[in-house]
Amino acid sequence: MTQDHTPPQLRMLAPENFREKLSRRAIFKMGTAAAGLAIVVAACGGDDDASPSTDGAPDTTDGSPLASGDWSRVINAASGTLAMYTWGDYNDPELVGKQAEGALGVTMKVDYFNSNEDLITKLSTSGGSSGFDIVAPTGPYIPQMIEKGLIQKFDKTLIPNMVNVDQAYLAQGWDPTNDYSVCKNWGTTGFIWDSSVITRDMVTWADFFDACMDEATGMCSVLDTGPNLWGAWCWANGKDWNSTDAADLDACEAFLVDELAQHIKKFDSYPSTAIAEGAYSLSMAWNGDARQAFYRIIEAGGDPSVWKWAVGGPVTELWMDNYCIAAGAPNVEAAHAWINWECVPEISIQDLQYHGYHTGMRDMPDLISELAPDLDRGEIIFYSDSQVATMSTQEITSAIDRQVEMLNRMKAKAGA
Amino acid sequence: MYTRDRRRWRGPKFVLAIPAIIWYLLFFVIPIAFVVIYSFGTKDTSRLLPVDLGKLTTANYSEVFDDTFFKTFKATLRIAIVATLLCLGIGLPVAYFTAFKVSEKWRVVILALVVVPSFTSFLIRTVAWRIPLAPNGEFSRWLVDLGLIGDRGIQLLETPTAVQIAIVYNYLGFMILPLFVALDRIDVRMREASKDLGAGRIATFFGVTLPLAGPGIAAGVLLTFIPMCGDYVTATVLGGAKGNMIGSMIASQFSQAQNWPLGSAMAVLMIGAVLLVLAVGALLVSVVPFILKALQPVTQSIRRSLNEHSMASAKGDLPSTARRPDVMRFVFAVWTVLVLLFMFIPILLVLRHSFNSGSSFSIWAGHTSTKWWGELFASGATWAMIIRFLVIIGVVLLVRRVLLSRANVSKRVTSWMGPLGFLLAFVVNGLASDWFRDIFDFAGIGDSIRNSFTAALGATVIAVVLGGLSGVALARRPGAWTKIFMATVFLILVTPEIMDAIALVTWFQRVGDIPVLGYLFRNGLGPFNGGMHKLWVGQSLYASAVVTLIVRARLAGLDEALEEAAADLGAPPARAFRQITLPLISSALIAGALLSFTLCLDNAVISTLVSEAGSTTFPVALLGATKSTIKPFWGVGAVMLFMITMGALAFVAVVLRRSGESSSDIAATLAGG
After folding, report:
1. pLDDT of A45 strictly over 50
2. What is the ipTM of this complex?
3. Hey, where are the domains in chain A?
């Protein structure tokens, strides 16, 4: 999954007048306005019946080809309610609201979790009657969810738009045949800080921990997931976060619990709102949430220019979240319809503009330059090959319980 | 006694309590027993229920006593004790002022103002505290501009202080009401006698008023302290890492850490800790008279000097004594106004932020916008709903008037038509037309409001039936069973909600293995579809315990002669129950129903854990949203929920007054009198 990237400068290549033209067309096609939905459906040539209509020919509405290659834009209608259990702020509210109702005929209900463990507990304690149709686990957690019978197999004929997903993001180790999952989006982990408080340069995870215990003491938030904290410690200390070395785990726990915990203000997986409220001056964050923080800061009347974002160095995480269908899902038909709809390039890019994560569509640079040329703060979304090369994907090892326990002890210590 | 026993059906004494006994056994005793068993197990995440009961161990308990976890225990108890004392300190003057210093009219107004905030969603009020506490918020900036605080603004958000403030706020009403009722019941002659005998104001308060208000204080302390200990919402929303409370820590053991044995051990110890604190508190209270006696020489000398002072001023003329109470009264009045303002701050903020032009509820984006409210009226469904509602109510009132004009229609019938009409309007609107969904077609918030009402109504019905029957049985047919039953009820009241929640979640899964019942729970039929039944079960536990106590207290204060007379006159038990007992306890049932309904409507902890996606209630959905960004339409939803609830209550109140029930009587019963 390290192949694709979109250098942020790409969008700067288009001449100003051309960009404006594109932008208008893009808005027209994307139907960001509520009424625009019908246009999307029309433009995509999708029918209410499930007949596939691969629209390889140049886009008929404005006569220009959309990016390169063939795009599948099947939209299957469904009905009823569709319940999704996902991470916070993970879809454009318009998409899960009016647009889903208009295009798919389903009313979406969205609930949120903080960590994969929360998701697994919710599904396993309800014994197949959680009522959720779609869940969005991170890749490495999928095998155990299959094993415990928490998610069910796709009917792939109902997700023809999966061909739009870049091969690089399909057939991952956790689900080589994509029978259970398809990439929702991928992202990375870094930190965002107030440069008026922390004036020095911040590059590595060591810098992060250092600032957290120094300038930002008591004003620092970290992600509310065990593996991420273990990872950050490993990356700061030149270790492999997929190792199960007992000495490393002990050393990490000692550091997190005895040294770092007392400086933490909150274990917060979605710090963007609290950053804007002024609660933190340094936060460990996923890139999309960090991007949203900038918008929140502006909304709160703050100065976004003092806030800086960095992908943690020298190594950081590359994670991929996936759409899966929960076992016992009440509305399997709608679940397929939704996942398939999310694989339509226009919808995918609309979502991307909101949540700020790479959605795994192929030809991403072309898609962006055509559909979202004005994309803001793309540098927080897309990373160059050399940056991606520094990112490492989590594996679920025998140490996972230990990593989660570490977080718990750390929480207990931080509160004391 | 002999004749009564002969005529009554000779079932076991607890026959009326049988439904409650089965219910508690099935959904409290057994599930909690499982949690206790889990606490001796070991964690095994490879299983669906991640507990290995193969080798039992007490290691989990020693882990809780480990320094790091134990500190959170102590911090939680500290926050709860401090908050309880603060509630008492803040609430007592308000209750005192309301009970003794104002006219009947103002008394009603103040009580209403105390109660009204609790009909706004508990969760949204807690979230609303983020607004004034935010370092970058307007309030903070004002203070900075005024030079009152440093440049970085208020640094309270995500701290224990924020939790302390919000928790006092959240439970203050539950303290003031019982205090008021207790003070209000004090015979004024006692206080007058004390003063006539020469006791001063302070001596009268501490020597007469306070001891007589003892039961009210005890009720208030119980009603605030116990839920505070298990509170999970306030700390989660406002507390940050340092304001962590045991409730949220237990919850995260179950969900995130998947360490059920440790979580269970924590929950068991927590009940122990709550009971211990209550025992110590009771001991302290029982010691107070002795301390007072020991201090008598001191207090007497103080009293004497005070008396001389007041006697001296009284000697002159009356106006001087009349002036001093005025000063005191003024001080109390100012205090009461301040407290009421405090109680309304978050509500006003919720209202204002529902007009926020920005995309986040707690961040004020500079100017007002009606876009979130606009969605409400955009589809026309809201108007249709309002019209439908008014028409149905109107028709019912008309029919009632017609019936009233005929002499042969019993007043009891007509008096119940109002609430029935309201219920009809509600059912027609809510269930038949899907208006909740229509008016909020955004992310299922309308559904959540409807689910909240369906869940709360169902749970309230269960609570009233179970609690009413067992309350009667407790008061009228006491026996050996009473003690065990009361112990269970008390245990339900002191068990932290989070433990009930966990017990039920794991239990519901096991229930799946029981024939018939398991089939209903797994596959769902009617109400068993979509998880609503789990909410009814979960929410009814605490509510039914409350109703039980209220009904029992009501009957205990009433002479049994009426029922005996009915029996002597040959009325069969069922008829005596219907015609004598039921009317006697009706105000208690109504009070219990109102209290249950409010508690259930706000229930977040149990509901979050047991709900399924199809039965998400408003607090559950909002609690989920707090993990992400809370959009301003949640404010709109909360205001709507509030207005619907208030409308319902106002209607009930009007009807009650017409049907002759004294609202102050109900208020009294409501507050545990």
Report:
1. no
2. 0.82
3. 189-317+395-415
